[in-house]
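Here is the promised in-class demo. Please do not try to memorize the tokens; focus on the logic of going from shape to residues.
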């Protein structure tokens, strides 16, 4: 899995990077603001994005809204908001913009792991019907090949 960490604070990016490295991830990208991150998403296409809300140039809500626009090729990438300013109003605004998970700073490895796990489990469940259909098609093809070989 690859990750993109978006935060204007280098210290926070280092902490999150360290946690992700501890989980075994080796493909981690970083950005200091949402505008820079949009460009990075287009080239790197990370599996999960972890973003702050309060940043200069292009804040988190604006970034999420821009990314989640359906014509965007990256609109299905899950987003975890990691912020020190998660008020009820901010959470509603972020949820409306398309974020998947929310965490309050400072983040613990256990909390981040739980949120990443939830995202992975949801994506596994979403792809399960497709995988079952593909498996059934393979079985049918194999059965036909076995019948032809038997004749």
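The designed amino acids, position by position:
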């Amino acid at each position: 899995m690859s990750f993109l960490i978006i935060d204007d604070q280098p210290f926070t990016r280092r902490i999150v990077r360290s946690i992700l490295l501890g989980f075994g991830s080796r493909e981690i990208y970083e950005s200091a603001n949402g505008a820079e991150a949009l460009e990075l998403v287009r080239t790197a296409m990370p599996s999960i994005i972890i973003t702050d809300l309060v940043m200069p140039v292009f804040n988190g809500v604006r970034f999420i809204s821009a990314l989640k626009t359906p014509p965007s090729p990256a609109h299905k990438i899950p987003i975890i908001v990691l912020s020190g300013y998660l008020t009820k109003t901010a959470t509603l605004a972020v949820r409306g913009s398309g974020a998947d998970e929310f965490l309050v700073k400072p983040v613990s490895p256990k909390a981040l792991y739980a949120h990443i796990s939830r995202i992975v489990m949801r994506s596994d469940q979403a792809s399960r019907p497709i995988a079952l259909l593909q498996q059934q098609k393979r079985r049918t093809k194999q059965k036909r090949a076995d019948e032809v070989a038997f004749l």
